[in-house]
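Methods — Computational structure assignment.
A single polypeptide chain was analysed. Its primary sequence is given first, followed by the predicted tertiary structure written as structure tokens.
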Amino acid sequence: MREGVAKVQDDDDHEFVDLLHSLGVQRNVAKVITYLAVAGEATSRDIERGTDMRPPEVSIAMRTLRRENWVHERDVKSDQGKGRPHKVYSCKRRAI
């Protein structure tokens, strides 16, 4: 993953997305899993920028990941302390 102001998926990440997709994972879900695996944690906006997905696509993928219990979600208050808190997502780690 290239890193500038925001992390952006690179060719290696796209290969992993393709691998997950070939195993039956929806492509947008695979993009989000790959992004979170590398980034550690991110907001929806970070995911949109890093995966080049539109907000509704991220929302649908996150709904799937929450339903499958694959992501951890936490609220973070904005810097100014006003408005709605931001959701920050990360992949859940599972012992095998």
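Note: The domain at 2-91 is CATH 1.10.10.10 (Arc Repressor Mutant, subunit A).
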